[in-house]
Amino acid sequence: MNILFCGADGFLGRAIAKSLEQAGHRVIRGVHHARQADDLAIDYRRDLTPEIWLSRLQGVDAVINAVGTLRELRAEDFERVHHLAPAALFCAAVQLGVAKIVQISAFGNPTLTPYMSSKHAADAALLEHMPRGATVLRPALVFGVEGDSTRFFMALASLPVLAIPRGVGKMQPVHVEDLAEGVCKLLESPESSSRILDFPGPRALDYVDWLESYRKLMGLSPAPHLPVPAYVMAVSARLAGLFSRSLFCRDTWKMLAAGNVAEAEASERLLERPLRDPLDFTPPEAASDLRQRALSLWRRPLLVGVLAALWLLTALVSAGIFPIAQSLALLAPFGLSGTAALLLLAVAITLDVGMGLLTLLRPSRRLWWSQLALIAIYTLLIAWRLPEFLLHPFAPVFKNLALVALLIQLLAEEQRA
Fold first, then answer.
1. Which of 25, 175, 180, 356 could form a disulfide with 311, with the two C-beta atoms 3.0–4.6 Å apart?
2. Which residue spans within 109-191 are E strands per DSSP?
3. If DSSP states are collapsed to H, E and C, what string results for 177-205?
């Protein structure tokens, strides 16, 4: 079967295309940038009329649409990418007598968000154009180690304390390989009537159970829970939504809070077997790799943020929160006083500010080595002229060992020179 697969280079697309090719089908990959022999360059922001698609559909037996965007990067992205371009594709396919069309849609309330409503508008267009041979497939939250949402929730699940928002609905995560197999089954099925097929996982999970199941997949023990009020999540979603690449925004919070559950019998009938349980999404031997993937998403930002805060707070304290006169008195054992002492204090404050800003803006191996050298110099000078700080009950000098360990960790993970 020759299959035009639009969106074949996305997370879902790669898994489904692999399954189709293993089943012996030829996949014509509709992608934004054509790089391979069977790639077809498409642009859902512009390909909005059936005429554009007619030549592309010559010799095609089936069509799959899996193009989607969770966030609008440009005005009218949802309307163009989710509705108008797919509707034009479906219309052209019907004109040419394409036998099978599978529309990968969204599972949930169509009026909840613009994302949902635009997806469901394309569903309606397909079912209107093609009364036979079309399937609107609406998967629940899809699990796959390469998926952005999976990585995001794996990272949340790997934290030492689980933040549990109040008012979150239940979820039925489904494994991406089950979904890919389901698409193959749909294309090969003799079923001719057009239909809508919800494709949830085998069981509904509370948010707590959902994250704890991910912890078990990573080989982590249960973690304590921190309840978070719904209004805090709503405000956080608005703030996170200011960053265009953030998965978390007002609309995704609405979808998470609403939840989505459905009966899984139709999915299991299609596959002719039970769906994978969330606790069996990955084999036990993959736990270590999953754990390292999850930790890597938040470990470095945490280390960099703490390090930058230490440098900047040190500068702030030295600039006047700690009395200037006492700071200058600490320089007296080095033979410095008056203007020379003030100048050196100003240089030290400027250096601390610079280190803090560079940590945030230009992290690199050279910077970490420079900070290690500076900490070593500070420590040696204090040990030389202010040895009482070595014996201080709060051990301010020995706490530099924690900074050294942090910098060694960053050095080991840093990819840039």
1. 356
2. 134-139, 142-143, 162-165, 174-175
3. HHHHHHHHHHHHCCCCECEEEEECCCCCE
Would you list the domain boundaries of the chain? 2-282, 298-413
**Cβ neighbours of residue 25 closer than 8 Å, sequence gap 6 or more:** 1, 2, 3, 184, 187
**Cα–Cα–Cα angle for 196, 270, 8, rounded to 5 degrees:** 70
Instruction: Specify the CATH number of the domain 2-282.
Output: 3.40.50.720
Structure tokens at 109: 């309330």
How do residues 183-204 score in pLDDT, each as one tens digit?
999 999 887 789 999 999 999 9
| 49 to 52, 102, 133, 307: CA distances (angstroms) | 6, 19, 22, 54
For the chain, the average pLDDT equals 94
d(CA 376, CA 366): 15
Q: Tell me, what amino acid is at 50?
A: P
d(CA 346, CA 363): 24
Closest among 19, 4, 125, 158 to 66, alpha carbons compared: 4
Q: Which of 395, 219, 209 is nearest to 293 (CA)?
A: 219
pLDDT band at 244 (very low <50, low <70, confident <90, very high): confident
8 Å CB contact between 295 and 156? no
Q: How many angstroms separate the CA atoms of 133 and 353, rounded?
A: 65
Give dist(CA 249, CA 244) in Å, integer: 9
CA distance 54 to 51: 5
Alpha carbons within 13 angstroms on the beta-carbon side of residue 395 total: 5
Strand order across the 100-104 sheet: 39-41, 26-31, 2-6, 62-65, 100-104, 134-139, 195-199
Tell me the per-residue pLDDT of 3-14, one tens digit each, with 9 for 90 and over.
Answer: 999 999 999 999
Torsion of CA 384, 388, 393, 397, to 10 degrees: -20
Task: Give yes or no for residue 233 having a pLDDT over 90.
Answer: yes
Return the CA Rg of the chain: 28
The C-alpha angle with vertex 184 and arms to 170 and 278, in degrees rounded to 5, equals 30
Tokens 């609905």, residue located: 169
Mean pLDDT within 293-314: 95
pTM for this structure?
0.87
For residue 172, which amino acid is it?
Q
User: 54 is written with which tokens?
Assistant: 């007619």
First to last CA, the chain: 50
Can you tell me the distance from the alpha carbon of 250 to that of 248, in angstroms, rounded to the nearest whole number? Answer: 7
